[in-house]
Every structure is written in C-alpha cells, then in structure tokens.
C-alpha cells in the first residue's frame, strides 16, 4: 500500500463524494468492498477488504413518469420505497425481484435498487416479463478510474453506443459502482389467479409447466416444490397438503384472469384436479415465494441453478442420489433452488459435475465464510470466456479495486 | 461524398490486395470469395445509400470455423473487417472501407434447432428474421422482434443493432429475446455465451454484444426465445385532427394501465403515401393516425379495444375504426410496413431514429416540422409512438450533393432536438457512420472513453468495423489534448504492478 485511506465503512451521500472516495482508494491502492445495504454481502467469495463503500445514503427517486413507464432512482433507494411509490399509480417492477434478505439472515424489504440491478436478481415473473437487466434503461456509475460515467438514458429504446447499463447488471459490484438507475416499469395487474396441482412428481410437474408456457395465456409464474418445502407457506391448503405443490400464475384484468385460469385448467386436465387461488391468496403466496420462504431459517448451503427447463427434473434426480437435497423449481424448471446438507464444499463438486451433463450454471447463494472462501461460488467459466471476462473487468476497473475476488479469483 | 470522413485507408494493405485475396482463397477454399470489381461493387453500400465505398474483397463463409480462420488471418495481417448480414442498415453500419474485407454472413442461414418445449430456437446468424418465425409457426410459436425489414434483415444484423420493431412495446427488442450466441473474436477465438436457459453465467456479455454494431466480435449463431402466438390480435385505427391530440391519446392509453402490443403513429404525408401505395383503407382527411393493436382471446380483445376507445374519446378522434376481419387487419399492417418502401418510390429519404420521452411528443413533432421547413424539405413522420421512437423521413434528392449536405444538417438538428428533450440519438437503427460525430451531444469524454476502452480490450487494433459508432474527430481531439488511451493504460499497468 502506498498511502493511507481511512478503513472501515464509507457511505457518501453524493456522486461527488463517491468520486473523491474512489480517487483516494486509487491513490492509496486500497481495495473497496462495494455494496448497497449489504443484504447480499454474504454472496460470493469473501472480499476481505478493510474499506467498505456503500450507496445506502444515496436515496431518492429523481423522476417518475407513470405515463411514460419510466422511473429514475438513486442506487441506494430501497426497493420497498420504489414499489410503494409505483403502487400509488397502480404500477410495479415487472421483474418482481427476489428478496434474498430473509434467507441470508436479514429482514425483508431492505434491499436497494442498486443491489437488485447489480446482482440481476429476478423473480418468478421473469419468465414472462424479462429479467431485472431487461428493464434497465440507463445508468450512472463510477468506474475504477474514479470517473463518473453514464450509459443509456430515460427513454424506452436506446442503441446509442454500447449498452453499459445492462452489462453492469449482474456484475456484483466488480466493474463499477452504480449511482443512479433508470428503469422501465409497467402497470400492475389487478387480478391474479393461481392454479395449483398437488402430488406431481418432478418430471411430470416440469412437463405440465412447460405445456403451460406453450399456451397463449401469458403464464407469469411457474413453480414446483417438494412437500417438505410447501409446509413453510402460510396458506393452509398449501402448507397442509402433504404433497408436492405445482403452482401456475395468470394475471390481467378480472374477466381475462378468470378466463386464463380456466383455460389453463382445461389444458392441464390430465394432471388432475386443480385448486384455484383468488387474487388475495395468490398475492400472499407469490410474495412468500419472492422471499424464498421455503428456505428461510436454516443455515444449509443454498444454490441457484440455471438450466434448460426440460433437463431440470433429471438434474435434481441425479443429484438426489448423491446426497439429500430439497429443491424448488421456478421459471418452469429453468431456475432451480437447491438446498444441500452442510457439506464442507456445499455440494459444489457434485452439483457442478452433474450440471455439466445438462448445461447451465450454479451459484452458491448461502454458505458460511469458510465454504465460500474454499470453492468457486460463481460458476467457473470456460477459459475463452474467463479471458474475455478478465478483459472486461480491466476495461472498467484496471487496478482491480472493486470487490476483488468476489466473483473470480484475480 | 459529402461531409462524412472515413479513416484514411492503409496504403500498404491496398498494395497487397492480390496477395491477400490469394491467401484467403487458400485459407478457406469452401468459402465464396468475391474479388472482381463488379462483384465488390454489389457490396459498396447498405440501406444508407448516400454513402458508398468499394471494399478490398468480399468473403462469404459457410461455417463458424471459416469465420474464425478468416478473422485470425486478418488479425495477423492487420486487415480491417466489416461484418455484414443483409445490408439493410439505415445508418451505414455495413458501409465498407477501401482497405477492409466485407465478411458477409448471408450464406450461414440454417435453422439448427427449434425446441418448442423449452421455447428456444438456435439459428445461424445469416438467417432472416422472418425465417425464425416461419420455422416455429407450424407449432404455433413466433420470434417477437419484428423490424420493418424483417423479410430481408438477418438475425446477426438484428443483434448488431439491437433491432426493435412495431411489436416491441409489449415484447421488447432483440436484447430482451436473445439467450445465447456463438461469437468469433477478432483474433479468431470462438466463444460460446449463454444457451437455452434464461441467464448466462458470469458477466452478462449478451447486452454488450447486442447493439455493438459488429465492433466487438462476429456472431455466427444465436439462441433466441420463442413465444406462443396469441389467440388473436386486432388493430384499430384512430384518426385525429391534430398531432397533439394523437400524442396525448397515446400517453393516456398507457396511463390508463393498458400496454397494447403496438401503437404506431403516422402523420398526414405518411398516411397519404401509404394509402396510395397499399390501399390499406386509411382515412385521408386526418392530420394524424394511430394504429393500436391488442391481443388475446375474442373477449379480451373486445374488452381492450372498448377501453382504448373510451380513453380516446377524450381527445375527440374523427375516425374510430376496429378492423373487422383478419384480411382487414393484415392490410392495415401491410400499409404500415410498406411505408418506408412507399416513400422510397417517391423520393430519396433520410430516415431519422431519435427517441424522446413520450410526454414531449407534441413539442417534438412541432419542432421537427419547423426544422424541416427551415431547410426546405418535406417530411413524413411514421413511428413507434408507444415508446417515443421517432422516424421522421426527410425527403431529398440524393444525387444533388448540395441537398445531401443540407439534409445531413437538417437531420443533425432533429437529433440534437431529441437529446435536448431528454431522449437519445438512435432507438433501433444504430449509430453507424451517420450519427458518429453526434455522440458527444449525448455523452461526455468519460462516457465515450469507457466504451472505447471496452472496444480496445476486445479488439486492440480496431480492425472490426472501424470508423463507426465513435466520433473520429473526437478521438483526434483527445490525442491533441495528450490523453491518448494507450499511454494512460500503460501508466495504470505500472501502477498495477506496483500494487
């Protein structure tokens, strides 16, 4: 280290202060741990920096035009605050971000919008409406040279230069520190219906979910989970079913949502009689899905696996022969949450080896420090892609001061 | 050539032309190589026909491996490469350079896989946009982005420009519908990104590649999302006495909680031209026409059209007409999709692509009219109103060099207006050569440097589609100010070693 920077926690209130802070870190070669309010701080390999920089004091919605479907917020603005504001105009964040706080030992609703976009964490509606990154219209950020940069803007379509905003989404604070984000928002759906089947095997359930996604009824939630996970939900019929639960959500104006739910039941007659939840019960259920209610309150390793939907059940089946797992499928099988026993590697070797047969990738979302320090938390990349990633990192953060080692060893 | 400057050609490369052609022929004997002047001239321009330049040679590879071999050769020999799909770029994105080979992907047009169970298709980059939907249609699926040129344009080109289309208000643009690519880097390395799942591991390169105008790598294969066709779709026509009323109506529809699958806007000149060309049944006695399309079951469609009509009533439309049959619906869209072609029959045109916040629509249309009058050009406006993506078509004579220069200035003023109103230079056509010098209107030095740094990280010698996207003058100016990037990087690297 060539100089001194005050270690500890920094939470600047303005972009100018943040620019100065990064400049100081550059001068003194001090690595920075980058975060919002830190609810996802324990995801990734431990950064182990003495200096933490948070955007939690950069709060506020600087622009919200309901008639243009656009909202601009500072990175530290809590998602809960943004959603409350949107609700006043009957609008919402279409990608329904998963709230990882409760499974990682934090309260619900604490995440910042910067953290959500920085980790590109999308919820069940991703399958219909797109991922968090799809809704990014523009950003402002401080790069690893201490420069304030912007990309995109506040309009719906923009191909002026490279799309740095969506590129920063999902970079886990390793490329730049986002300070402001423009987002596309959408009208909220008034009526929500959930069609539920009980007792389907994983393979049969995924088949049903894929059939549902191949209908024109705009299914916006496709979840399947084992009986032991369903127990955790508040809805008595779901919790008490003592059987696996396969849930499909449709939304729209009232007569349409009812029509869609009925049509879905017709299309899936072969999968047995279905329970239908009304709007209130549906919202309560999917809100619990959003906080991963079924995985809360335990310290076991929790993996997020992305794969081809039709492979998901087989993947989980093969893994089950290695050790006891609890799995919940979202995105009609394209996203699988897998909880493993407390193995020293979190199950990393077996999960990745099994996954290699099917294609896709796995990220360890919950584990203790020792486990995270000892394995690749993020999916190791093929060498050409790893080399490309290193080049991208260097282009944004040439000295490697942002979250060093969090995604990949440097 | 008008006010546009292209980078000075590398004389040494021009002198080696025969040798380069000979070596390429030996390297990829199965690829089609065009070296004669007449053949090369076919590729001298794209859909921005005001600019032309005959390339060094044209290669049409048939496989990713051939693309890799060609790029590695060009990399090692310092030959520039201009990737090209169908050449439908409206911003000169595929304009050749004298010392560059054109790498045309149009022969790579196979559908590799249609997987309706997982709702994805894997196709080669030279496949046309419409052919993806055609391949999936038998099973009731479609590929959503639908640029007006979809019969001709390729998916590779769509990725390069992040193409949109009339229906992207609901379904999003290319970047929202792309799941994976196979891509060849300038040094010949083949990289696979993403696949038939909804997110790729690690950094998200897909949005970086999408819209990068062929400057970061050459995409040879794409995995795209397929969607189930809706039960039905029906457009309605709303005619207004003023463009202001039409614009306000668009905002009110969206504020009313309805996001139709498309809201298209045409002004009087555009309506008249299209109607004469296609006889789509457009009303001729209105100042502005909206085509609003909704989707769903019969009941859903009726409900939504009723609601749109209710909302529209506040703005006193002089024409309200729901299409009564699939034939009528098809005709309505045919008129819209033929618009550019129809206007092209009348006159050369300069097609703008600026985007503005929706609330500024009336002001923007007013000012655009005023600017065009100032430059003594007629203008027709036809665009995707739901997302504020304007397409003023400025009518001019391309063979008159004075007019060409004047139309460039006129277009520039319109784009500056879009930025002033809080919008951007280009919504779906790309920057290309056309809007290159205007980048500083939207971005600062630092903004552009960050993009340039990514370009230099992936293509350090600027061999892939150079002379596009970034302001040439700006780069020169930066050199003059003594902040040449390479020097800065070296300085930083030293610092890194000291760490």
Describe this structure in words.
The complex is a heterodimer of chains A (410) and B (499). Helix content of chain A is 31%, strand content 23%. With 410 residues, chain A is of the alpha+beta class. Chain A has an eight-stranded antiparallel β-sheet, sandwiched between helices. In chain A, α11 packs antiparallel against α12. The longest helix of chain A has 14 residues. Chain A is globular and about 65 Å long. The model of chain A has no long low-confidence stretch (mean pLDDT 96). Chain B has 499 residues and is α+β, with helices and mostly antiparallel strands. Chain B has a seven-stranded antiparallel β-sheet, sandwiched between helices. In chain B, a hairpin with a 5-residue loop joins β8 and β9. Chain B starts with 10 loop residues before the first helix and ends with a helix. Chains A and B meet through β8, α5, β10, α9 and β18 of A and β9, α8, α9, α11 and α17 of B.
Find the count of extended strands of chain B (DSSP E, 2+ residues): 18
Would you tell me the overall average pLDDT of chain B?
Answer: 92
Coarse morphology of chain A: globular
The helix content of chain A is: 25-40%
Number of helices of chain B: 19
Query: How would you classify the helix and strand content of chain B by structural class?
Result: alpha+beta
Q: Please give the alpha-carbon distance between the first and last residues of chain A.
A: 18 Å
Strand order of the largest sheet of chain A: 14-11-13-12-16-17-15-18
Q: Give the largest chain-chain interface (CB within 8 Å).
A: A-B, 88 and 98 residues
- Oligomeric state: heterodimer
């Amino acid at each position: 280290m060539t100089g001194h920077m005050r270690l500890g926690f920094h939470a600047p209130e303005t972009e100018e202060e943040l620019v100065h802070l990064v400049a100081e870190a550059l001068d003194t070669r001090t690595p920075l741990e980058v975060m919002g309010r830190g609810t996802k701080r324990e995801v990734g390999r431990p950064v182990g920096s003495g200096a933490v920089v948070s955007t939690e004091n950069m709060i506020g919605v600087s622009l919200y035009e309901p008639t243009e479907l656009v909202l601009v917020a500072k990175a530290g603005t809590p998602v809960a605050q943004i959603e409350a504001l949107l609700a006043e105009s009957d609008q919402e964040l279409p990608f329904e971000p998963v709230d990882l706080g409760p499974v990682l030992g934090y309260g619900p609703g604490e995440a910042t919008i910067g953290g959500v976009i920085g980790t590109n964490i999308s919820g069940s509606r991703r399958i219909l409406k797109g991922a968090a990154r799809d809704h990014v219209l523009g950003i402002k950020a401080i790069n690893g040279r201490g420069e304030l940069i912007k990309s995109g803007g506040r309009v719906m379509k923009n191909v002026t230069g490279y799309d740095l905003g969506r590129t920063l989404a999902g970079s886990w604070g390793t490329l730049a520190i986002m300070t402001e984000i423009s987002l596309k928002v959408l009208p909220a759906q008034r009526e929500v219906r959930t069609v539920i089947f009980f007792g389907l095997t994983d393979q049969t359930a995924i088949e049903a979910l894929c059939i549902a996604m191949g209908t024109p009824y705009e299914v916006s939630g496709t979840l399947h989970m084992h009986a032991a996970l369903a127990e955790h939900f508040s809805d008595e019929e779901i919790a008490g079913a003592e059987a696996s639960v396969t849930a499909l959500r449709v939304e729209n104006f009232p007569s349409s949502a009812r029509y869609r739910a009925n049509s879905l039941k017709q299309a899936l007659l072969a999968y047995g009689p279905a329970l239908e939840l009304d709007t209130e019960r549906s919202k309560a259920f999917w809100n619990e899905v959003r906080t991963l209610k079924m995985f809360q309150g335990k310290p076991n390793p929790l993996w997020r696996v992305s794969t081809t939907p039709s492979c998901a059940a087989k993947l989980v089946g093969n893994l089950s022969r290695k050790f006891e797992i609890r799995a919940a499928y979202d995105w009609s099988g394209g996203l699988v949450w897998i909880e493993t026993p407390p193995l020293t590697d979190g199950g990393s070797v077996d999960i990745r080896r099994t996954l290699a047969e099917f294609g896709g990738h796995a990220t360890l979302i919950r584990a203790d420090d020792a486990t995270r320090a000892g394995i690749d938390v993020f999916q190791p990349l093929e060498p050409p892609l790893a080399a490309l990633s290193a080049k991208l990192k260097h282009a944004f953060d040439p000295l490697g001061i942002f979250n060093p080692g969090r995604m990949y060893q440097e | 050539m008008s006010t546009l400057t292209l980078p000075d050609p590398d004389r040494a490369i021009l002198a080696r032309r025969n040798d380069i052609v000979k070596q390429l022929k030996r390297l990829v004997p199965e690829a089609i190589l065009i070296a004669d002047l007449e053949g090369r001239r076919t590729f001298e321009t794209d859909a921005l026909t005001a600019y032309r330049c005959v390339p060094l040679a044209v290669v049409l590879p048939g496989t990713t491996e051939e693309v890799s071999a060609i790029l590695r050769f060009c990399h090692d020999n310092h030959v520039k490469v201009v990737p090209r799909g169908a050449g439908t770029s409206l911003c000169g994105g595929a304009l050749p350079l004298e010392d560059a080979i054109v790498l045309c992907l149009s022969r790579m047009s196979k559908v590799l896989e249609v997987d309706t169970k997982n709702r994805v298709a894997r196709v080669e980059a030279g496949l046309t946009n419409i052919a993806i939907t055609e391949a999936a249609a038998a099973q009731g699926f479609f590929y959503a982005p639908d640029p007006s040129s979809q019969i001709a344009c390729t998916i590779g080109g769509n990725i390069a420009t992040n193409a949109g289309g009339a229906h992207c208000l609901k379904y999003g643009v290319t970047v929202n519908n792309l799941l994976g690519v196979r891509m060849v880097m300038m040094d010949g390395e083949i990289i696979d990104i993403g696949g038939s799942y909804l997110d790729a591991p690690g950094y998200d390169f897909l949005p970086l590649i999408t819209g990068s105008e062929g400057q970061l790598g050459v995409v040879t294969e794409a995995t795209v999302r397929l969607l189930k066709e809706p039960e039905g779709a029906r457009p309605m026509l709303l005619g207004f006495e003023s463009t202001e009323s039409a614009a306000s109506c668009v905002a009110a529809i969206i504020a009313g909680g309805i996001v139709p699958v498309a809201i298209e806007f045409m002004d009087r000149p555009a309506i008249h031209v299209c109607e004469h060309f296609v006889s789509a049944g457009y009303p001729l006695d209105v100042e502005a026409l909206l085509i609003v399309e909704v989707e769903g079951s019969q009941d859903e469609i009726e409900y939504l059209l009723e609601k749109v009509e209710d909302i529209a009533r506040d703005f006193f439309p002089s024409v309200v007409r729901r299409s009564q049959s699939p034939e009528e619906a098809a005709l309505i869209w045919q008129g819209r999709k033929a618009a550019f072609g129809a206007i092209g029959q009348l006159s050369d045109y300069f097609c703008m692509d600026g985007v503005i916040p929706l609330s500024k629509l009336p002001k923007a249309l007013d000012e655009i009219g005023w600017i065009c009058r100032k430059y003594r050009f007629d203008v027709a406006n036809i665009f995707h109103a739901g997302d504020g993506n304007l397409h003023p078509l400025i009518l001019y004579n391309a063979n008159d060099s004075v007019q060409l220069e004047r139309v460039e200035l006129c277009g520039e003023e319109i784009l500056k207006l879009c930025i002033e109103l809080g919008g951007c230079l280009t919504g779906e056509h790309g920057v290309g050569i056309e809007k290159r010098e205007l980048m500083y209107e939207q971005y600062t030095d630092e903004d552009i440097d960050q993009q340039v740094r990514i370009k230099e990280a992936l293509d350090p010698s600027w061999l892939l589609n150079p002379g596009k996207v970034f302001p040439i003058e700006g780069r020169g100016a930066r050199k003059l100010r003594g902040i040449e990037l390479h020097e800065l990087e070296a300085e930083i690297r030293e610092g890194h070693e000291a760490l």
